[in-house]
Amino acid sequence: MANSFYGGIKINKTGLSHGVSPKVFTPAAVAINAYQQAGGDTAPCIKEGEYVKKGQVIAVSERLAYLHAPVSGTVVRLLMKDNSHYIVIKSDKTETCAPAVPFSKPISEITPEEITEKIRTMGVVGTFSGFPTHVKIIASRGKAFCLVINCVQSDPYGSFVREIVKEHPKELVYGARILAKAIGVKQVIFALENNERKSFAALKSVIGEKDKLISVARLAPKYPLGEERNLLCAVIKKEVPAGRATHDIGYTVFSAETVLRIYKACAEGVPVTDKYLTVSGKKCVSPANLIVPIGTSLRTVAEQCGGVPEDALCVYGGAVNGKAADLENGCVTKSTSQLIITQPLNKKTQACIMCGKCITHCPMRIAPHTFIDGSHRPAWAKLCDMCGCCEYICPSEIKLLDIIDKRKKEESK
Amino acid sequence: MTYTPTLRDKTTALSFAADRCVILLLPLIWSVYAYGWRALFITLISVIFSVAFAFGAKAVLKQKADLFTLLDTAVSGAVFAFTLPVSVPYYIPMLGGVLAAVPSLWLPGGRKPFFGGFFAAAAVRTFFSKLLSRATQAFVYVSPFIFNPTEADINSFRTYTPLQLLAQGKVSSGTLWDQFYGTISGNIGEISFMLLLLGCIFLLVRKKMRLHAPVAFAFVLCLVTLIFPKGDNEAIFFMLVSLLSGGVMLTAVFAFSDTYSMPVTDTGKIAFAVGTAALTVLIRYLGIAEEGVYAAVVIMGAITPIIDRYTLPVAYGRTKVKGGKK
């Protein structure tokens, strides 16, 4: 099949309508974990009792992205928990913003280094992985010649990426141009699912017919198309060699929300203070896409959408590879993407029947069933990106993700 | 922290066994029509002995026995009965039913060495090859109440199956269409190619079987018999008779849908099917047994772990695969 990748599963979209623009709300208090990004903790630069404005820098680091106050209000507490700083801010509900700091000169005169520094100080990190964006830009610079913008959300419950593409095509294209300049690529491809006709039309009208830099690719929808390596497989029909990064074969992938953040940081001077996320699921009263200030507790987010019924299960992450959410202590971070309120699956695990379905559906073309008895090849544990296709498809209802996770941990020791 | 997926595919392991049970019914009904109630009795005896032995042995060995075991051993027992001519004495399905349940006692958690039904068929054929070659005409009924039909009982309508005739270098009087529909002499469950084909399509549509193995099996079988026809028959005719008779379709439907004894990967399944087809033709040519396919499946089943080891998939990023396959 054209424009697709090996394996994967076709999950029907669950029929929940999220066809609404993301809603914004302000919580009473936020608890921000300063450990927002892969790579390390940031140090708070404010004191207890201090008043902060929305968008003011509250934690800094020499190498990593900064952290900004998601709401205006008073810093109530600073604490250390699990080797990372937490900053608790009580909102005063006024949304007083710190002044925006856009570039003082036109974009054409700014150097790539300035853009990268701006992205860092505005706190942009990867929206799914939490990997600091400026680090990725520097790593790709000089190696990548093509930038792929991931506008795909293949998870059956998620839909905020689609809303972003539908509502902000201009910002995305502008942000893509800035990013292309920062990395120094000669080609930009927007990757879209082929059932997103409105988004496609919107992007096309913004890009224009004769643009040599930017093009749009339409891909067959299939889970997990959103994963970087599967996306590249579908867009350019190339595979990333084992143990290498995507920029080693000349491509680099950024998600649509990251590009939107880059646009806001560079063109408007607005830092990252909130996160798009989808709240949905079978037991969710009013599923919606939300724009949530970072640090909002997961319980507050769930209550915005009608609360959590007694017998429901809250899952943080994907519908087929999520983990149970800690509603009491869990907070929205820069890489939270969805919260699912649903009924638990009662799995009756039985012995493997050797049907081979996990193999035919694994996008990484490994044999997940071999992890059960540990007869897998050593390199496979590293290759698996925990998409959950094998566990979704397994007729014996074996908890393959847990098993593979265990093997991964054993092998990384 | 453990993973808690919220969605899963609705296919269960039980439905694999249940679907194979469902496709047993059509050939069974047809065999009752063609051979009378004795066909049903033989099948029932085989199924009952198979299930009873499996549950009894599992209780002794302290293994778990559930609905899945029941359906799985029932399929094995019934498929064994399908490989018998209707004239066999009733102790054959009793013995075979027990043998058909033996592979299911293999420890749970993966591989069973053989497909029970064919394991029993191959074993019983070794001991009772003469009894099992007494084919009778279709639509002439052997009484279901004779425990052990003697030569005299069936002599008046004794005949040969197309494959037995072919082994002697003769051509059957029936047409190929007779073989296709199943209006010709043969074994209980395998006479009707058409009904088994329907079952095969049912399994394919329900995604309980992959297309690879049956197609590879049929292709290799046709190719080899076309290139090396036996006797003075026309090559194409020989190929079609070989394909339409002798449990070829029974293999394609029941042995290849037995997930326990088949290799896991698609490549492995193709290798298994090619090996089975080649061995089948070889056994038929050497003339030891006309129904070489059961022995072929058992031999290939023995080397399945080796096939599995060498046909593990090549992981992402290790080699280039053109395009994206489904």
Tags for this model:
heterodimer; A: 413 residues; alpha/beta; Rossmann fold; six-stranded mixed β-sheet; four-stranded antiparallel β-sheet; 13 helices; 17 strands; 20% strand; B: 326 residues; mainly alpha; Ammonium transporter fold; two-stranded antiparallel sheet; 15 helices; 2 strands; 1% strand; globular
In brief:
The complex is a heterodimer of chains A (413) and B (326). Chain A is built from 13 helices and 17 strands.
Task: Describe the protein's architecture and organization.
The complex is a heterodimer of chains A (413) and B (326). With 413 residues, chain A is an alpha/beta fold. Chain A has 13 helices and 17 strands. In chain A, the strands form 4 sheets. In chain A, strands 1-14-13-17-15-16 form a 6-stranded mixed β-sheet, with helices on both faces. In chain A, helix 1 (112-121) packs across helix 4 (169-183), helix 3 (160-167) runs parallel beside helix 5 and helix 4 packs across helix 7 (256-268). The longest helix of chain A has 15 residues, at 169-183. Chain B has one domain (13-310): Ammonium transporter fold, CATH 1.10.3430. Chain B has 15 helices and 2 strands. Chain B has helices at 13-35, 37-61, 67-82, 91-101, 116-127, 151-154, 162-167, 176-181, 193-205, 212-227, 235-244, 248-255, 266-286, 292-302, 304-310; strands spanning 135-136, 158-159. Chain B has a two-stranded antiparallel sheet with strand order 1-2. Chains A and B meet through helix 6, strand 16, helix 9, helix 10 and helix 11 of A and helix 1 of B.
